[in-house]
Specification:
The structure is a homodimer of 303-residue chains. Chain A is α/β, with parallel strands linked by helices. Chain A is built from eleven helices and twelve strands. Chain A folds into two domains: 84 residues, Arc Repressor Mutant, subunit A; 196 residues, D-Maltodextrin-Binding Protein, domain 2 (3-Layer(aba) Sandwich). Chain A binds a DNA duplex (30 and 30 nucleotides) through helix 2 and helix 3. Chains A, B: Keywords: DNA-binding, Transcription, Transcription regulation.
Chain lengths: 303, 303
Amino acid sequence: MIEARHLRVLREVARTGSFSAAARELGCTQPAVSQQMKALEQSAGTPLLVRTGREMRLTQAGEALVRHAVGILAGLTAAEEEVAAIAGLRAGRVRLVSFPSGSSTLVPTALAAMRAAHPRTRVSLDEAEPPRSIEMLRNGDCEIALAFRYPEVRAAAPEACADWDDLVVRPVLTDRLVGLVPEGHRLAAAGSAAFGDLADEPWIAGCPRCRTHLVEVCESAGFTPRIDFATDDYPAVIGLVGAGLGVAALPELTLASVRPKGARTVRLEPAVHREIVALTLPDLARVPAVGAMLDQLESAAAR
Amino acid sequence: MIEARHLRVLREVARTGSFSAAARELGCTQPAVSQQMKALEQSAGTPLLVRTGREMRLTQAGEALVRHAVGILAGLTAAEEEVAAIAGLRAGRVRLVSFPSGSSTLVPTALAAMRAAHPRTRVSLDEAEPPRSIEMLRNGDCEIALAFRYPEVRAAAPEACADWDDLVVRPVLTDRLVGLVPEGHRLAAAGSAAFGDLADEPWIAGCPRCRTHLVEVCESAGFTPRIDFATDDYPAVIGLVGAGLGVAALPELTLASVRPKGARTVRLEPAVHREIVALTLPDLARVPAVGAMLDQLESAAAR
DNA sequence: CATACCTCCAAGTCCCACTTATACTGGTGC
DNA sequence: GCACCAGTATAAGTGGGACTTGGAGGTATG
């Protein structure tokens, strides 16, 4: 087995024409070069160099080996270069999967910051909700899955989050839920309400997991919500409330980039939070570009 | 510094998708593979593999490295292949330089035998006499120099052969000198003659070194030869003798492939020999093709 | 629930690569 | 002709690293 180290030495010897000169170039002692060449000739099975006293000349086998060495070492250098670029954030692609409608403000901000910080990296964005996004993560279809969870649900049914325990869970943002009532609603002016105050209202719920959570919270408050509509689409929820068809509890972030028409937000008591987290695999968390993107998500949340 | 050994393991891991399977393929234990991959990731500065429990997947950096590894390992294999071909006499070129007119029978026989024994090797032939051929040998313009020497000259003037003492001198053939006299000469019928018998004849001499030797031998016999002609070309010597212009002392080998016209050979007493030797550099003697060619020269001389 | 398979970790052993020191050789100066 | 210099080969010693063995932990599969 020919070793790349030997080829490097051989090339330098061929270039300089001397063991000592090659040793100086390579930063080692002359006997080291001598021994490596001996070992290489041993494994080659034929002399590679002719020592004629004054000068060092290549045999035919030596010439052949040097000829190949150039290409091999160039390939090695290119490989190191490319890997170093990925390791040094001068290259690399991150595939991010976010929950639908969670990418309205947080993700764009993080993407912009990532591009500014590491212009040569590329981040692709796709939408999926757990458990689909987790599946994608495990299948290698993405590096980061952005998801959310409700602490209350996690406490009540830990098995629902069981498949996260071998993942890296990076908390990004905790997002308080606010109430949304039609303009002119009796609570619209109050600016604040307890869940119990909305016990008799028709409710507009969000995604299935949000709906489950809503039921859980309301039951803690002593009532079971009457849910008339449920949709994954937050603008649709706002529209429904605006049309006076019911009330809703929405994460604050979903209202950050829109101004609800015909509806008013009210502070909900007690405080209930949605926790937005970025998920990845332990090994992937150590990939520079992935780590950088996680950092950018966290920074974006801080603003 | 990425090592080829690591790339080989990485490629196998990528191919089989498992450390254990790769270890089996490579003939080592699984921890060995595990450690090598760890070391490679260390030097790469980023994870190359994602362990998801059931399967092993490549990261982007891992994919890049495998992509390069294919070419690098192919280059290494090609290099080993070519060197092994040279070492195994399935390739290789030998440049042989022979003294002029010494290549009439010995060299052709050896070349034919070499081609028969190792058809894939190539031997080129050039003509030059020492010290020119020695210079070519030292300059790297040939691998084998075929030359001859006269033991008497070597004993009388050792400094003439001083520049051979760091060379490999392989005796190939000792070639007795025979006398050549015109047909009808008084000694032609005798079949044998002493040098002294030819003291009064006009002489035809060969190359400068042969001429020097002839003078030396004749002086040992008690006379100084009258040299009328001198030529490097043995057929010319034979022609001159055949034309009755003088007598000559020729190595037996020069008459092996020609039948002198108008001249007769006579045994010369005392016996005087020319020693044909093959010269090469110590390192070159260990090159398989060179060694094989030396052997073929020796075998050719035995016939 | 037991089994089989795979990976990681820790410890021990052995080998190999490099260094230092020294002898030897050839070319070069006075 | 002799000493000097540069370069190479060799020997001995040392340190690191690569592999093995042995064991623990975890995950699919029967």
